[in-house]
Amino acid sequence: MKLSVCTISFRHHLHSIDQIAHWASTHHFQGIELWGIHAKNLADDPKYGENWLNSYELQTSMISDYLPLEGSVSQMMTETMNMSKLAKHWGTKKVRTFVGKIGSQEISLTKRKELVDRLRMICDFFESEGQLVLVETHPNTLTDNLASTIQLLEETNHPALRINFDVLHMWESGVCPIEAIRRLSPFVSHFHFKNISSREHLNVFAPENVYAAAGTRKGMTPLFTGAVNYQDFLDEIIPKMEVEASLEWFGPHVWDVLGNDSLELRKRMNEEHVLRT
Question: Which residues form a coiled coil (predicted)?
Fold first, then answer.
């Protein structure tokens, strides 16, 4: 497994990219998932980029952004080209985005077709640059459940389109993540790992709460102490595919939680390897 730390986890903390990279390299991470706005804000300083990150023996696993599929075509393509340029600067082929802001059960057929057409346009561009578009499984988008995600893959029908499989959000949709990954694994290029204490607290991840500095963090929990059974999920995927994943943490004590989750992940994977050999 290649494990990354997300810079979005430090969105409300006064830590530099230098501090994050140093910490990640000394806590057995292999990469950094760079939040799109962080990549944009670092663009004016030529010091930062692929070579700088490689000096810490780290790679950029992905840039996570929010491409404006619902804006004008010119705005969408301007943002797409900018993100492609930043991804090249940081040495990654993967750019994450969401598909729309309306759930698959509420969106009209006309609006869905429009989003699919827009998604195909940005896929064409990223493919021409040797890059990939990863759409994240997430509530209130066209990938808010397994059936709609499969439908989107079929509708778009593009080799540059891949999935960022957010395990918790797939579980949130009511589908067993193991069942979902068995269907989606040929299309998955990245995973997001996070957990929650119970379903009653899932609204903690609503964008209007999770991005707010004063938002509640009630229910957020380390990876192996929550309602989603990550041990079973890892047992399913580790023997069958190359896993590139990012730990997402939106709560307090970010260094401690991410460090302990990374340590526990490695411990459990090592134990599983011993059992299999």
Answer: none
**Tokens matching residue 265:** 């992940």
> How buried is 165 (Cβ within 10 angstroms: 0-12 exposed, 13-18 middle, 19+ buried)?
buried
Domain boundaries, the chain: 2-276
For residue 78, the SS3 value is: helix
The domain 2-276 having CATH identifier 3.20.20.150: the answer here is: yes
CB atoms near residue 119 (< 10 Å):
24
Calculate the alpha carbon distances from 244 to 46, 103, 165, 248, 252 in Å: 27, 27, 10, 13, 25
Q: Rg (Cα) of the chain, in Å, rounded? A: 18
Q: What is the pLDDT of residue 86?
A: 98
Residue reference for tokens 């399913």: 236
Is 71's pLDDT higher than 90? no
- The three-point CA angle 44-48-52 to 5° equals 165
Q: Which residue shows structure tokens 């929650």?
A: 196
Threshold 0.85, pTM exceeds: yes
> What pLDDT band is residue 271 in, cutting at 50, 70 and 90?
low
Q: Are 247 and 3 in contact (CB under 8 A)?
A: yes
- Could you confirm whether 138 is annotated as catalytic? yes
Q: Does residue 273 have a pLDDT over 60?
A: no
Q: Is the pLDDT of residue 199 over 80?
A: yes
**3-class SS at 45?**
coil
Give the other-Cβ count within 10 Å of 104's Cβ. Answer: 21
Confidence of residue 272 (pLDDT cuts 50, 70, 90): low
Catalytic residue chosen out of the listed positions 38, 89, 138, 192:
138
